[in-house]
């Protein structure tokens, strides 16, 4: 890898990390008046078009199943979502928004629309905004392809009767 490639990777990563923080902050502001957090809104948004199992939501969002499970349970406890049977898997129930959950997300729409309009203007129009989204989707797909091609290394074969190597540093 050349120094220029390393610099491009570093700039991209730092930009994405900063952008993530900016999106989380504005999402919290938009969601708060609706009685939601950004995380609750994100999980509810994943199931607005149809129920999904927690693992499916986690895959779509790129986060752990345990994180989504915790949020899903909170949404159900608050009456914003419910679990329903999953015909494809007896134990992996489907999460679906309740009418109250849909209404809460609906209360975010005006602020969301205003932010979209402002970003469209700031980026120089709809086509520029669409191109920005395409580039981010392409970057995500490339990262996914790299991750998929890097299978975890296999552990060394076990040798019966030998102790595993010590992980503590030797005093020199």
Automatic annotation (TrEMBL):
Gene3D superfamilies: Winged helix-like DNA-binding domain superfamily/Winged helix DNA-binding domain. It comes from the Bacteria. Residues 146-172 are annotated as: Disordered. PROSITE patterns: HTH_MARR_2. Residues 6-141 form the HTH marR-type domain. It holds the Pfam family MarR_2. Coiled coil: none annotated. This is MarR family winged helix-turn-helix transcriptional regulator. It comes from Streptomyces lateritius. The lineage of its organism: Bacteria, Bacillati, Actinomycetota, Actinomycetes, Kitasatosporales.
């Amino acid at each position: 890898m050349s120094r220029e490639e390393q610099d491009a990777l570093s700039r991209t990563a730092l930009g994405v990390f900063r952008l993530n923080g900016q999106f989380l902050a504005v999402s919290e502001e938009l969601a708060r008046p609706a009685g939601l957090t950004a995380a609750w809104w994100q999980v509810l948004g994943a199931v607005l078009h149809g129920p999904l199992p927690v693992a499916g939501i986690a895959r779509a969002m790129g986060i752990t199943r345990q994180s989504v499970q915790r949020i899903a349970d909170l949404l159900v406890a608050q009456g914003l979502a419910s679990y329903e049977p999953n015909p494809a898997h007896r134990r992996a129930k489907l999460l679906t928004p309740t009418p109250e959950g849909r209404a809460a997300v609906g209360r975010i729409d005006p602020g969301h629309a205003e932010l979209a309009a402002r970003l469209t203007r700031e980026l120089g129009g709809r086509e520029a905004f669409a191109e920005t989204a395409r580039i981010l989707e392409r970057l995500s797909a490339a990262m996914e392809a790299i991750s998929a091609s890097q299978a975890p290394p296999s552990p060394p074969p076990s040798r019966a009767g030998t102790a595993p190597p010590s992980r503590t540093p030797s005093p020199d």
